[in-house]
Amino acid sequence: MSEVIRLLPDNIANQIAAGEVIQRPASVVKELIENAVDAGANNIELHIKDAGKTSIQIIDDGKGMSEMDAKMSFERHATSKITSAADLFTLTTKGFRGEALASIAAIAHVDMDTIELGAQLGTKIQIAGSKITSQEPSSRPKGTSISVKNLFFNVPARRNFLKSDNVETKHIIEEFNRIALTHPEIGFIFSHNGNVIHNLEGAGLRKRIVDLFGRNFNNKLVPIEEETDIVKVKGFIGKPEFSRKTRGEQYFFVNNRYFKDSYFNHAVVAGYDNLIPPKHHPSYFIYLEVPSQSLDVNVHPTKTEVKFEDGRSIYSIIRSAVKLALGKYNIAPILDFEH
Ligand code: ADP
Ligand code: MG
Protein backbone atom coordinates (compact mmCIF):
# COMPACT_ATOMS: atom_id res chain seq x y z
CA MET A 1 0.00 0.00 0.00
CA SER A 2 1.26 3.47 -0.76
CA GLU A 3 -0.22 6.91 -0.34
CA VAL A 4 -0.46 8.90 -3.53
CA ILE A 5 -2.82 11.67 -2.52
CA ARG A 6 -1.30 14.95 -1.38
CA LEU A 7 -2.35 18.58 -1.02
CA LEU A 8 -1.37 20.87 -3.87
CA PRO A 9 1.19 23.56 -3.06
CA ASP A 10 -0.40 27.04 -2.85
CA ASN A 11 1.15 28.37 -6.04
CA ILE A 12 -0.33 25.50 -8.07
CA ALA A 13 -3.71 25.75 -6.33
CA ASN A 14 -3.72 29.49 -7.07
CA GLN A 15 -2.86 28.93 -10.69
CA ILE A 16 -5.74 26.49 -11.04
CA ALA A 17 -8.14 28.90 -9.32
CA ALA A 18 -6.88 31.63 -11.64
CA GLY A 19 -8.14 29.60 -14.58
CA GLU A 20 -11.65 30.03 -13.21
CA VAL A 21 -11.52 33.66 -12.14
CA ILE A 22 -9.12 35.27 -14.63
CA GLN A 23 -9.94 34.38 -18.19
CA ARG A 24 -8.61 37.48 -19.91
CA PRO A 25 -7.39 41.02 -19.21
CA ALA A 26 -11.01 42.17 -18.75
CA SER A 27 -11.35 39.80 -15.76
CA VAL A 28 -8.42 41.56 -14.07
CA VAL A 29 -10.00 44.94 -14.77
CA LYS A 30 -13.29 43.79 -13.27
CA GLU A 31 -11.75 42.35 -10.11
CA LEU A 32 -9.45 45.30 -9.44
CA ILE A 33 -12.05 47.99 -10.07
CA GLU A 34 -14.49 46.12 -7.84
CA ASN A 35 -11.88 46.07 -5.09
CA ALA A 36 -11.41 49.82 -5.49
CA VAL A 37 -15.17 50.34 -5.19
CA ASP A 38 -15.31 48.06 -2.14
CA ALA A 39 -12.50 50.16 -0.63
CA GLY A 40 -14.81 53.19 -0.77
CA ALA A 41 -12.97 55.03 -3.56
CA ASN A 42 -14.47 58.26 -4.89
CA ASN A 43 -12.15 58.31 -7.89
CA ILE A 44 -10.76 55.39 -9.83
CA GLU A 45 -8.25 55.39 -12.68
CA LEU A 46 -7.81 52.55 -15.14
CA HIS A 47 -4.78 52.63 -17.45
CA ILE A 48 -4.17 49.77 -19.85
CA LYS A 49 -1.43 49.03 -22.38
CA ASP A 50 -1.94 46.82 -25.42
CA ALA A 51 -5.47 45.80 -24.48
CA GLY A 52 -4.24 44.93 -21.00
CA LYS A 53 -1.86 42.27 -22.29
CA THR A 54 1.21 44.35 -21.39
CA SER A 55 -0.15 46.13 -18.35
CA ILE A 56 -3.26 47.05 -16.39
CA GLN A 57 -3.06 49.67 -13.67
CA ILE A 58 -5.84 50.64 -11.29
CA ILE A 59 -5.40 53.61 -8.95
CA ASP A 60 -7.94 54.41 -6.26
CA ASP A 61 -8.36 56.89 -3.43
CA GLY A 62 -10.02 54.37 -1.13
CA LYS A 63 -9.13 53.26 2.38
CA GLY A 64 -5.92 51.42 1.44
CA MET A 65 -4.24 48.62 3.36
CA SER A 66 -1.79 48.20 6.23
CA GLU A 67 1.50 46.43 5.55
CA MET A 68 0.14 43.16 7.01
CA ASP A 69 -3.06 43.34 5.00
CA ALA A 70 -1.19 44.21 1.82
CA LYS A 71 0.78 40.97 2.12
CA MET A 72 -2.20 38.98 3.32
CA SER A 73 -4.41 40.19 0.44
CA PHE A 74 -2.55 37.86 -1.96
CA GLU A 75 -3.30 34.73 0.07
CA ARG A 76 -6.06 32.50 -1.24
CA HIS A 77 -9.42 32.85 0.54
CA ALA A 78 -8.07 35.98 2.22
CA THR A 79 -10.87 38.52 2.47
CA SER A 80 -11.91 41.32 4.79
CA LYS A 81 -15.45 41.22 3.45
CA ILE A 82 -17.14 38.25 5.06
CA THR A 83 -16.50 36.40 8.31
CA SER A 84 -19.34 33.87 8.38
CA ALA A 85 -21.54 31.88 6.01
CA ALA A 86 -24.50 34.00 7.09
CA ASP A 87 -22.73 37.06 5.65
CA LEU A 88 -23.20 35.56 2.19
CA PHE A 89 -26.86 36.52 2.42
CA THR A 90 -26.34 40.12 3.45
CA LEU A 91 -23.49 41.08 1.13
CA THR A 92 -22.94 44.75 0.54
CA THR A 93 -19.57 44.35 -1.17
CA LYS A 94 -18.78 43.14 -4.67
CA GLY A 95 -16.03 40.81 -3.52
CA PHE A 96 -16.30 38.09 -0.91
CA ARG A 97 -14.37 35.07 -2.20
CA GLY A 98 -10.88 36.33 -1.48
CA GLU A 99 -9.64 34.74 -4.68
CA ALA A 100 -8.97 37.55 -7.10
CA LEU A 101 -5.62 38.91 -5.91
CA ALA A 102 -4.27 35.42 -5.17
CA SER A 103 -5.27 34.32 -8.66
CA ILE A 104 -3.84 37.36 -10.40
CA ALA A 105 -0.56 37.11 -8.46
CA ALA A 106 -0.21 33.48 -9.56
CA ILE A 107 -0.21 34.33 -13.27
CA ALA A 108 1.21 37.84 -13.61
CA HIS A 109 3.76 40.31 -12.23
CA VAL A 110 2.00 42.51 -9.71
CA ASP A 111 3.13 45.80 -8.14
CA MET A 112 1.04 47.05 -5.25
CA ASP A 113 1.47 50.43 -3.60
CA THR A 114 -0.94 51.16 -0.78
CA ILE A 115 -1.36 53.20 2.37
CA GLU A 116 -3.92 52.70 5.08
CA LEU A 117 -6.10 55.71 5.79
CA GLY A 118 -4.44 57.80 8.51
CA ALA A 119 -1.08 55.97 8.41
CA GLN A 120 2.27 57.76 8.04
CA LEU A 121 3.88 55.28 5.73
CA GLY A 122 2.59 52.97 3.06
CA THR A 123 3.82 49.72 1.59
CA LYS A 124 5.10 48.83 -1.83
CA ILE A 125 5.32 45.17 -2.75
CA GLN A 126 6.13 43.24 -5.87
CA ILE A 127 4.87 39.75 -6.40
CA ALA A 128 5.27 37.23 -9.20
CA GLY A 129 4.15 33.62 -9.46
CA SER A 130 2.56 33.91 -5.97
CA LYS A 131 5.85 34.99 -4.33
CA ILE A 132 6.71 38.37 -2.87
CA THR A 133 9.89 39.44 -4.62
CA SER A 134 10.40 42.85 -3.02
CA GLN A 135 8.97 45.03 -0.31
CA GLU A 136 9.71 48.62 0.72
CA PRO A 137 8.00 51.53 2.47
CA SER A 138 6.03 53.93 0.29
CA SER A 139 5.15 57.59 0.64
CA ARG A 140 2.03 57.59 -1.50
CA PRO A 141 -0.53 60.00 -0.02
CA LYS A 142 -3.70 57.94 -0.25
CA GLY A 143 -5.36 54.78 -1.50
CA THR A 144 -3.99 51.97 -3.57
CA SER A 145 -2.33 51.48 -6.93
CA ILE A 146 -2.07 47.99 -8.42
CA SER A 147 -0.24 47.23 -11.68
CA VAL A 148 -0.62 43.87 -13.33
CA LYS A 149 2.01 43.20 -15.98
CA ASN A 150 2.65 40.34 -18.36
CA LEU A 151 -0.60 38.55 -17.69
CA PHE A 152 -0.33 34.76 -18.16
CA PHE A 153 3.49 35.00 -18.45
CA ASN A 154 3.69 31.49 -16.95
CA VAL A 155 0.59 30.05 -18.66
CA PRO A 156 1.54 30.12 -22.35
CA ALA A 157 -1.58 28.26 -23.44
CA ARG A 158 -3.75 30.97 -21.88
CA ARG A 159 -1.63 33.76 -23.28
CA ASN A 160 -1.81 32.35 -26.81
CA PHE A 161 -5.54 31.91 -26.47
CA LEU A 162 -6.07 35.67 -26.03
CA LYS A 163 -7.86 37.38 -28.90
CA SER A 164 -6.76 40.44 -30.89
CA ASP A 165 -6.18 43.72 -29.07
CA ASN A 166 -9.42 44.95 -30.55
CA VAL A 167 -11.49 42.13 -29.09
CA GLU A 168 -9.77 42.17 -25.70
CA THR A 169 -10.25 45.95 -25.50
CA LYS A 170 -13.97 45.52 -26.19
CA HIS A 171 -14.23 43.11 -23.26
CA ILE A 172 -12.45 45.63 -21.03
CA ILE A 173 -14.73 48.45 -22.15
CA GLU A 174 -17.75 46.30 -21.37
CA GLU A 175 -16.52 45.57 -17.84
CA PHE A 176 -15.69 49.25 -17.40
CA ASN A 177 -19.15 50.31 -18.58
CA ARG A 178 -20.87 47.92 -16.19
CA ILE A 179 -19.05 49.31 -13.17
CA ALA A 180 -19.29 52.94 -14.31
CA LEU A 181 -23.07 52.42 -14.63
CA THR A 182 -23.34 50.68 -11.26
CA HIS A 183 -21.64 53.66 -9.62
CA PRO A 184 -22.39 56.92 -11.44
CA GLU A 185 -21.40 58.76 -8.26
CA ILE A 186 -17.76 57.64 -8.64
CA GLY A 187 -15.38 59.55 -10.94
CA PHE A 188 -13.47 57.44 -13.47
CA ILE A 189 -10.54 57.99 -15.81
CA PHE A 190 -9.85 55.31 -18.40
CA SER A 191 -6.87 55.39 -20.76
CA HIS A 192 -5.49 53.00 -23.37
CA ASN A 193 -1.86 53.33 -24.50
CA GLY A 194 -1.85 56.84 -23.05
CA ASN A 195 -5.02 57.99 -24.84
CA VAL A 196 -7.88 58.99 -22.57
CA ILE A 197 -11.03 57.09 -23.54
CA HIS A 198 -13.21 58.36 -20.70
CA ASN A 199 -12.87 61.06 -18.10
CA LEU A 200 -16.11 60.77 -16.16
CA GLU A 201 -16.98 63.02 -13.27
CA GLY A 202 -19.20 61.59 -10.55
CA ALA A 203 -22.78 62.34 -11.59
CA GLY A 204 -26.37 61.14 -11.71
CA LEU A 205 -27.37 58.16 -13.79
CA ARG A 206 -28.69 60.06 -16.81
CA LYS A 207 -25.48 62.05 -17.14
CA ARG A 208 -23.37 58.92 -16.70
CA ILE A 209 -25.28 57.17 -19.53
CA VAL A 210 -24.84 60.17 -21.80
CA ASP A 211 -21.14 60.52 -20.90
CA LEU A 212 -20.58 56.84 -21.69
CA PHE A 213 -22.71 56.32 -24.77
CA GLY A 214 -23.02 59.72 -26.38
CA ARG A 215 -25.15 62.86 -26.28
CA ASN A 216 -27.86 61.43 -28.50
CA PHE A 217 -28.83 59.22 -25.56
CA ASN A 218 -30.21 62.29 -23.84
CA ASN A 219 -33.25 62.14 -26.11
CA LYS A 220 -33.60 58.39 -26.04
CA LEU A 221 -34.30 57.72 -22.38
CA VAL A 222 -37.60 57.25 -20.58
CA PRO A 223 -37.45 57.00 -16.78
CA ILE A 224 -38.86 53.86 -15.20
CA GLU A 225 -39.90 53.51 -11.58
CA GLU A 226 -41.91 51.03 -9.53
CA GLU A 227 -41.94 50.08 -5.89
CA THR A 228 -43.41 46.94 -4.35
CA ASP A 229 -42.61 44.85 -1.28
CA ILE A 230 -40.74 42.36 -3.45
CA VAL A 231 -38.66 44.67 -5.59
CA LYS A 232 -37.92 48.31 -6.30
CA VAL A 233 -37.32 49.14 -9.96
CA LYS A 234 -35.58 52.29 -11.21
CA GLY A 235 -33.59 53.44 -14.17
CA PHE A 236 -34.18 54.25 -17.82
CA ILE A 237 -35.49 52.44 -20.86
CA GLY A 238 -34.98 53.44 -24.48
CA LYS A 239 -37.81 54.99 -26.45
CA PRO A 240 -39.38 52.40 -28.76
CA GLU A 241 -38.33 54.25 -31.92
CA PHE A 242 -34.69 53.77 -30.98
CA SER A 243 -34.91 49.99 -30.82
CA ARG A 244 -32.53 48.22 -33.18
CA LYS A 245 -31.95 44.87 -34.81
CA THR A 246 -28.67 44.47 -32.99
CA ARG A 247 -28.69 44.26 -29.23
CA GLY A 248 -27.78 47.67 -27.92
CA GLU A 249 -27.12 48.72 -24.39
CA GLN A 250 -28.99 46.31 -22.16
CA TYR A 251 -28.07 46.47 -18.50
CA PHE A 252 -29.63 44.95 -15.40
CA PHE A 253 -28.34 45.65 -11.92
CA VAL A 254 -29.52 44.27 -8.62
CA ASN A 255 -28.43 45.65 -5.27
CA ASN A 256 -25.50 47.46 -6.94
CA ARG A 257 -24.34 44.50 -8.99
CA TYR A 258 -24.53 43.98 -12.75
CA PHE A 259 -26.20 40.74 -13.80
CA LYS A 260 -27.39 38.99 -16.93
CA ASP A 261 -30.85 37.48 -17.18
CA SER A 262 -32.57 36.39 -20.38
CA TYR A 263 -35.83 35.78 -18.50
CA PHE A 264 -36.00 39.40 -17.29
CA ASN A 265 -34.87 40.60 -20.71
CA HIS A 266 -37.97 38.88 -22.00
CA ALA A 267 -40.04 40.74 -19.39
CA VAL A 268 -38.74 44.08 -20.69
CA VAL A 269 -39.43 43.22 -24.31
CA ALA A 270 -42.92 42.01 -23.33
CA GLY A 271 -43.50 45.38 -21.65
CA TYR A 272 -42.94 47.14 -24.99
CA ASP A 273 -45.86 45.09 -26.37
CA ASN A 274 -46.20 45.89 -30.05
CA LEU A 275 -44.36 49.18 -29.81
CA ILE A 276 -41.18 47.73 -31.28
CA PRO A 277 -41.01 45.69 -34.48
CA PRO A 278 -40.32 41.97 -34.23
CA LYS A 279 -36.64 41.06 -33.74
CA HIS A 280 -35.77 44.58 -32.57
CA HIS A 281 -34.09 45.12 -29.23
CA PRO A 282 -34.65 48.03 -26.86
CA SER A 283 -31.89 49.65 -24.80
CA TYR A 284 -32.37 49.64 -21.05
CA PHE A 285 -30.61 50.45 -17.82
CA ILE A 286 -32.72 48.81 -15.13
CA TYR A 287 -31.79 48.85 -11.45
CA LEU A 288 -33.52 46.44 -9.09
CA GLU A 289 -33.39 46.47 -5.35
CA VAL A 290 -34.48 43.40 -3.41
CA PRO A 291 -34.06 42.33 0.21
CA SER A 292 -30.60 40.74 0.30
CA GLN A 293 -32.00 37.52 1.83
CA SER A 294 -34.03 36.95 -1.33
CA LEU A 295 -30.98 37.08 -3.59
CA ASP A 296 -28.18 34.56 -4.11
CA VAL A 297 -25.11 36.01 -5.83
CA ASN A 298 -22.94 33.02 -4.96
CA VAL A 299 -23.55 31.25 -8.25
CA HIS A 300 -20.34 31.54 -10.23
CA PRO A 301 -16.95 33.14 -9.56
CA THR A 302 -17.39 35.63 -12.35
CA LYS A 303 -20.69 36.49 -10.76
CA THR A 304 -22.78 37.79 -13.67
CA GLU A 305 -25.57 35.36 -12.83
CA VAL A 306 -27.68 35.69 -9.72
CA LYS A 307 -30.64 33.78 -8.36
CA PHE A 308 -33.83 35.44 -7.22
CA GLU A 309 -36.16 33.86 -4.72
CA ASP A 310 -39.20 35.33 -6.42
CA GLY A 311 -38.21 35.58 -10.08
CA ARG A 312 -41.72 35.13 -11.44
CA SER A 313 -43.20 38.03 -9.50
CA ILE A 314 -40.24 40.22 -10.42
CA TYR A 315 -40.80 39.32 -14.07
CA SER A 316 -44.38 40.66 -13.96
CA ILE A 317 -43.37 43.75 -12.02
CA ILE A 318 -40.64 44.59 -14.58
CA ARG A 319 -43.05 44.05 -17.46
CA SER A 320 -45.71 46.29 -15.99
CA ALA A 321 -43.17 48.94 -14.97
CA VAL A 322 -41.93 49.11 -18.59
CA LYS A 323 -45.50 49.33 -19.86
CA LEU A 324 -46.36 52.08 -17.42
CA ALA A 325 -43.24 54.08 -18.27
CA LEU A 326 -43.93 53.90 -21.99
CA GLY A 327 -47.61 54.79 -21.43
CA LYS A 328 -46.64 57.92 -19.50
CA TYR A 329 -44.12 58.88 -22.13
CA ASN A 330 -46.72 58.50 -24.90
CA ILE A 331 -49.19 60.75 -23.12
CA ALA A 332 -46.68 63.46 -22.21
CA PRO A 333 -43.36 62.85 -23.93
CA ILE A 334 -42.15 66.30 -23.00
CA LEU A 335 -41.99 65.27 -19.32
CA ASP A 336 -39.05 63.14 -20.21
CA PHE A 337 -36.81 66.13 -20.72
CA GLU A 338 -37.28 67.35 -17.19
CA HIS A 339 -35.38 64.41 -15.69
P1 ADP B 1 -12.26 39.84 -2.14
O1 ADP B 1 -12.49 41.11 -2.89
O2 ADP B 1 -13.16 38.74 -2.58
O3 ADP B 1 -12.24 40.03 -0.64
P2 ADP B 1 -9.61 39.97 -3.31
O4 ADP B 1 -8.59 38.91 -3.57
O5 ADP B 1 -10.13 40.72 -4.47
O6 ADP B 1 -10.79 39.28 -2.50
O7 ADP B 1 -9.00 41.00 -2.26
C1 ADP B 1 -8.53 40.52 -1.01
C2 ADP B 1 -8.60 41.61 0.06
O8 ADP B 1 -7.63 42.62 -0.21
C3 ADP B 1 -9.94 42.34 0.13
O9 ADP B 1 -10.89 41.66 0.94
C4 ADP B 1 -9.53 43.69 0.70
O10 ADP B 1 -9.47 43.63 2.13
C5 ADP B 1 -8.11 43.90 0.20
N1 ADP B 1 -8.05 44.79 -0.98
C6 ADP B 1 -7.95 44.43 -2.28
N2 ADP B 1 -7.89 45.49 -3.10
C7 ADP B 1 -7.97 46.59 -2.31
C8 ADP B 1 -7.97 48.03 -2.55
N3 ADP B 1 -7.89 48.53 -3.79
N4 ADP B 1 -8.05 48.84 -1.47
C9 ADP B 1 -8.14 48.35 -0.20
N5 ADP B 1 -8.15 47.02 0.09
C10 ADP B 1 -8.07 46.15 -0.95
MG1 MG C 1 -12.12 41.37 -4.89
**Small ligands present:** adenosine-5'-diphosphate, magnesium ion
Percent of residues in beta strands: 15-25%
And the CATH topology of the largest domain?
Answer: Heat Shock Protein 90
Identify low-pLDDT runs: 334-339
Q: What is the fourth-level CATH superfamily of the largest domain? A: Histidine kinase-like ATPase, C-terminal domain
Total number of domains? 2
Please give the share of residues in helix.
25-40%
The tally of strands reads 15
Order of H and E elements: HHEEHHEEEEHHEEHEEEEHEEEH
Q: Order of strands across the biggest sheet?
A: 5-4-3-6-2-1-7-8
Cα gyration radius (Å)? 22 Å
- Provide the residue-averaged pLDDT: 92
Top CATH class of the largest domain = Alpha Beta
Structural class: alpha+beta
Whole-Å distance between the termini?
Answer: 75 Å
How would you characterize this protein structure?
By secondary structure, the chain is α+β, with helices and mostly antiparallel strands. It has two domains: 10-200, Histidine kinase-like ATPase, C-terminal domain (Heat Shock Protein 90, 2-Layer Sandwich); 215-338, Ribosomal Protein S5, domain 2 (2-Layer Sandwich), CATH 3.30.230. It has nine helices and 15 strands. Strands 5-4-3-6-2-1-7-8 form an eight-stranded mixed beta sheet. Helix 2 (25-38) packs parallel to helix 6 and helix 8 (262-271) packs parallel to helix 9 (311-331). The relative contact order is 0.12. The site of magnesium ion has 5 residues, from helix 2. Residues 31, 34-35, 95, 100 line the site of magnesium ion.
